[in-house]
Write a structure and sequence with these properties.
InterPro entries: HtpX_protease, Peptidase_M48
Distance between the termini: 61 Å
Membrane topology: Multi-pass membrane protein
Organism: Cellulomonas shaoxiangyii
Keywords: Cell membrane, Hydrolase, Membrane, Metal-binding, Metalloprotease, Protease, Transmembrane, Transmembrane helix, Zinc
Largest sheet: 4 strands, mixed
Strand order of the largest sheet: 1-2-4-3
Cofactor: Zn(2+)
Radius of gyration: 30 Å
Number of domains: 4
Shape: flat
Low-confidence stretches: 1-6, 407-423, 629-633
Number of strands: 15
């Protein structure tokens, strides 16, 4: 009853939004008439224009939402003949939920499960119903856990939770599309109303989640239902680790696993990292929750299940993949249909890891080689260049050029110079040597990176034994210096003068977006500036400052930072020789590059920021190259 009342309230609030918009129009028109009668023609015109703006914004939003075409069905359909036990399970759970069976089951590439329906007449008449089942979810759960997930999703239909769903969904879309077009008094009033509507809508959704959990507890038992809820964040973490550690680097470099290996690799990782996943399971379930969230926190849902009636059901511990005969083939079909491989080279995992890690290591080594070339005054740096600088006692110059004067500077992510176990305890010169020796061994073909699901890739020599990177570094930094290191390298099949720098300039590969400032003036032209941890992305933009934040967000959603850096100007921090903070509010900074050119960036008072601290990030980027900067006015 409570949920029904809240749902009705959210629909009433949705109707109220249109009433409020109409009321604003009426007020503006009334004021227009009063102003006209008082002889204030200019004021009347402005008020009339405001009324027109609100009407146009509302009609345009309605038109856009009405014309929006549904996205094509994702994934691959799984017929009853292909997965009879899965369909039997779904039929059983639908009967328990007192709702009809989905017309389709589709395997999709996300860590998720959901049921949707093409309802008609604003949700009052049901339509074609689809169950979406994520391949990674099926790989990670057992049958009992998957039953819990499916029961929850079908439970949303047991109390007609979704009857008002289309109204609420389209209403939300209209409200957001309307307020995004408005500013001033009208925008302020309607944005406040929109927040109220979204708050009530989120509250209704949270209550519906708890009601759907009741069916899950009843059909699989409290322990399984609670355990499944706790397991879902673990699966999310495992998938994020898999995509970030095993897929991302190669993906950015134009490499990908085969369609069979795309999901197959995740299954291998789940098996190999079992002890690590078990440790994650010991952590308390997530408790974070906002009034804007559509779901209660996992901790709140687990606690609520203690008060729900529980069934006494034997647990089916078989892997959920048994419900889909030939699951590996089905997962391969999903990868072919849903994953955007584009023109990437598809490789088996052993070769993919060898090539992707070597490529990433070479990019990191290139930063050392370019710095060595600048210090040595040569056009291209090689491993020999680095060895000779260290032997000549110029290692400190090299590390200063790299920004590694302080031993603590080695703390960084896996792609940065000096990254690795205990990197912060290694002298800076040795950090740089480790980087270039590893890359040189792979570049010369004397070693390759060996794939592992249970740990990091390992650099092994032609004999399969670990490549003696430490021995080479010790020789280079020791009394024998460069000659001793060259001799050892030659014996290992590496010519120090033949291997080295590959890329002329640093790229945005591996770059992370930190912030952004819209409409910065650069040489009198307006640019949206995206701040990465590796440099600045400069994108020409219109002079209009309103909507700058959304424009940057849309830009970042349209392509990866690597693709954007290829389309627009990218200034890597590696290219910066010095910088100055010219003004703090609004930000005005100048970067002098190694080629002698100066790049001055000026923030406008009316410019928008991607994040609240984007100005501080820009100042910090400049200050790291200007330690003597005096506080500007």
């Amino acid at each position: 009853m409570v949920t029904t009342l809240r749902a009705a309230l959210s629909v009433l609030l949705l109707a109220g939004f249109y009433v409020a918009a109409g009321g604003l129009v009426a007020v503006f028109l009334w004021l227009t008439v009063l102003a006209a009668r008082a002889g204030a023609g200019a004021g009347a015109a402005k008020l009339g224009l405001l009324a027109i703006v609100v009407v146009v914004a509302l009609l345009r939003a309605l038109w856009l939402v009405a014309r929006a075409k549904p996205a094509p069905d994702p994934g691959v359909e799984l017929g009853a003949a292909a997965a009879p036990e899965l369909w039997a399970t779904v039929r059983e759970l639908a009967a328990a939920a007192d709702t009809r069976v989905p017309d389709e089951i589709r395997l999709v590439p996300e860590v998720n499960a959901a049921v949707s329906e093409d309802a008609r007449l604003l949700g009052l008449v049901g339509g074609r119903r689809r169950l979406y089942l994520g391949v990674p979810l099926v790989q990670a759960l057992d049958v009992a856990q998957l039953r819990s997930v499916l029961a929850h999703e079908l439970g949303h239909y047991s109390r007609s939770h979704t009857r008002l769903g289309p109204i609420a969904y389209r209403g939300r879309a209209v409200i957001l599309a309307t307020v995004q077009q408005l500013s001033g008094v009208a925008g302020w009033v309607l944005r406040g109303y929109a927040r109220l509507y979204l708050l009530v809508s989120a509250s209704v959704s949270r209550r519906q989640e708890l009601e759907a959990d009741e069916l899950s507890v009843r059909v699989v038992g409290r322990d399984v239902a609670q355990g499944t809820l706790r397991e879902l964040p673990v699966v999310d973490t495992a998938w994020a680790f898999y995509t970030g550690t095993y897929l991302a680097d190669g993906w950015e470099s134009g490499l990908a696993p085969t369609a069979r290996g795309f999901f197959g690799g995740f299954g291998e990782l789940l098996t190999a990292r079992g002890s690590e996943l078990a440790e994650i399971r010991t952590q308390a379930p997530p408790q974070e929750q906002s009034v804007w969230d559509s779901h209660p926190s996992v901790a709140a849902r687990v606690a609520a299940m203690e008060r729900m009636p529980s069934g006494d059901v034997p647990r089916d511990t078989r892997p959920a993949t048994v419900l889909v005969p030939g699951f590996a083939d089905a997962a391969t079909a999903v990868a072919e249909a849903a994953v955007r491989f584009e023109d990437r080279t598809r490789l088996e995992w052993d070769e993919l890891t060898a090539r992707s890690v070597a490529t990433g290591q070479q990019r990191t080594a290139d930063s050392v080689h370019r710095a060595a070339a600048r210090v040595a005054g040569v056009p291209r740096g090689t491993l020999g260049t680095v060895l000779d600088l260290v032997a000549a006692g110029r290692g400190a110059e090299l590390t200063r050029e790299l920004g590694l004067e302080d031993p603590g500077a080695g703390e960084s992510d896996g792609d940065e110079v000096g990254a690795g176990d205990g990197a912060d305890e290694v002298p800076p010169v040795q950090m740089a040597l480790h980087v270039v020796v590893r890359a040189a061994a792979a570049q010369a073909g004397a070693a390759r990176w060996q794939h592992s699901w249970s740990g990091s890739a390992e650099l092994v020599g032609r004999d399969g034994a670990p490549f003696p990177v430490e021995d080479v570094v010790t020789a280079a930094a020791g009394p024998g210096g460069a000659p001793a290191a060259r001799t050892l390298l030659a014996a290992l099949g590496v010519d120090a003068d033949a291997v080295g720098q590959v890329e002329e300039r640093a790229t945005a590969h591996g770059g992370e977006v930190l912030g952004g400032i819209a409409n910065m003036q650069i040489a009198k032209a307006h640019h949206d500036v995206v701040i990465l941890d590796r440099g600045l992305l400069l994108v020409p933009c219109p002079k209009r400052t309103e909507g700058g934040r959304d424009r940057i967000a849309a830009l970042l959603a349209s392509a990866s930072v690597v693709e954007l850096a290829a389309q627009h100007r990218f200034v890597p921090f590696e290219d910066v020789a010095s910088a100055a903070v010219l003004k703090r509010v609004p930000v005005k900074v100048a970067f002098t590059l190694h080629d002698g050119t100066t790049l001055e960036l000026k923030e406008l008072w009316s410019g928008e920021r991607l994040t609240k601290n984007s100005d501080e990030l820009m100042l910090g980027a400049a200050q790291q190259f200007a330690p003597e900067t005096v506080a500007a006015r």
